[in-house]
Amino acid sequence: MIPIQEGQITLKFRDETGAFKYDEDPFYQKSVRKLPETKGVDIVVPGAPNGYYLVELKDFRGHRIENKARITNGALAEEVAQKFRDTIAALWGAWRTDNIIGNDTLFSNRSLRVEGILLLAEDVDRPESGKRVRGIRINLKTKLENLSKFLGIRVNIVTEEEFRQRYAHLLI
User: Fold this and answer.
1) Could you name the domain of life of the organism this protein comes from (predicted)?
2) What predicted TM-score, i.e. pTM, was given to this entire model?
């Protein structure tokens, strides 16, 4: 079991997934973070049987109002797309310099599905209607997909509960 905690969210990944906190990886620490303004996702899951996952966690519970504009104006989509881009660039650099992070399947297997996931934890008791919340989430996903399209990755936005259901094969 690989427990990974980011803020108030703890996910327990199966050992075979090879999941790790990206910013704690030695290659990231020694090389990537030296470049100012470089961003990275929270979790990389390189060993899943059906894909390669980049997971960004955003816990906005208790911070709905101060993050509302970021969600609706595209700033959050830009930030997450930059994290996907910079993480893939760093994984490429690690692969090219034989500093394999996780494993080398991301670049050696073109048919591998690569998925960028934004796990967005928000307050359950939001004043907006469910229909409005879904609309905001669809708009956010569309923006994130458009910004990340050139990377050739699938993009998904999920709640913590949805992540645990949809990606149960990765978790204990």
Assistant:
1) Bacteria
2) 0.91
